[in-house]
Amino acid sequence: MRNQGWRGLVGVALALAAIVLPVGAQPYKAEYTLSIVPDGGTPWGKGTQLWADMVRERTQGRINIRLHPNATLMGGDQTREFTALRQGVIDMAVGSTINWSSAIPEFNVFSLPFLLRGYRSLDALTQGEVGRELFRRVEEQGVVPLAWGENGFRQVTNSRRAIRSPEDMRGLRFRVVGSLLFNDIFTALGAVPTQMTWGEAIRALRARKIDGQENPITIFNNARLDTVGQRYLTVWDYVADPIVFVVNRQVWDSWSPQDRDIVRDAAVEAARFEVTLAREDLLSSGQGMWENLEARGVKVTRLTPEQRQRFVDATRPVYVKWKALVGRDLVEKAEAAVRDESISSKSPSLGARR
């Protein structure tokens, strides 16, 4: 009887273990690494931290996530993030489609100059067939995509002069991210692009080794780029920078189905929070953010439609070249989605006063 009772207890224990761990899975780690490029004070950082906190709480500590900001797990080189994630050097990430475009060239669709016409067209891509196709590309690389977030539309700043036309960019030295597409865009506009990491860019701006950079307003504000000479800001909305909440495939497979659902649901909630946070100042009825920038001495230039069209025309050869490199079928789906959205409703410009 005792043996039967013992065998019964063992059976119950094994059954409970099977609930926690999938067949063939490894035990959970004591801590999982989660990488992001900016610091925790940005909407990107706050959304990521919310994801980690919700997962820890809802799994009752089974999945404990530590956030590593500023690309510290890659020695500051954000372009290595996706490779490190794919190889299992890091477990999770909320990463930029721009930074990951060297591994997934299709991500460059968001960086085709002046393809997008505002937030609604961006949403049409990420939440539609284009977004689903891009997620399939991510999965093919051994990474599980869970939700779309947003770094924002990228604007251009410099320390020398206001930019209202392509001629104003001639000869200016700009830091660009590690995608050859950005090299082509800035070269077409007569500027001198230099690829460097974000940490290198801050030092170069401070030392006046470069004249300018391009980034979303939230990054400009959080890094206080006005304190390193960036006094001229042009709102041109030329490309967008979605971010993606992801998990390494082996890590994902090590979790129980119940915990996977928790992680996925938390990612969707955190991404929704992050997008709202990233947009709220830019689309609010007040002008607090813009007034704050101008009070700090930043001269904000908002292009007229005619001025913006000159940049569109100047970068058109780059668009045509990269449409073929990104994939004609994918880009045509994106163009159709933008066109359909534009017909249904007019999207506001990020720089528009409302």
TrEMBL record:
**A GO term (biological process) for this protein?**
transmembrane transport
**Is Transport among the key words of this record?**
yes
Q: Which GO terms describe its cellular component?
A: outer membrane-bounded periplasmic space
Query: Pfam families this protein is in?
Result: DctP
Record-linked PANTHER family: C4-DICARBOXYLATE-BINDING PROTEIN DCTB, PTHR33376
Q: Which family does it belong to?
A: Belongs to the bacterial solute-binding protein 7 family.
Protein name per Swiss-Prot or TrEMBL: C4-dicarboxylate ABC transporter
Q: Which source organism?
A: Pandoraea anapnoica
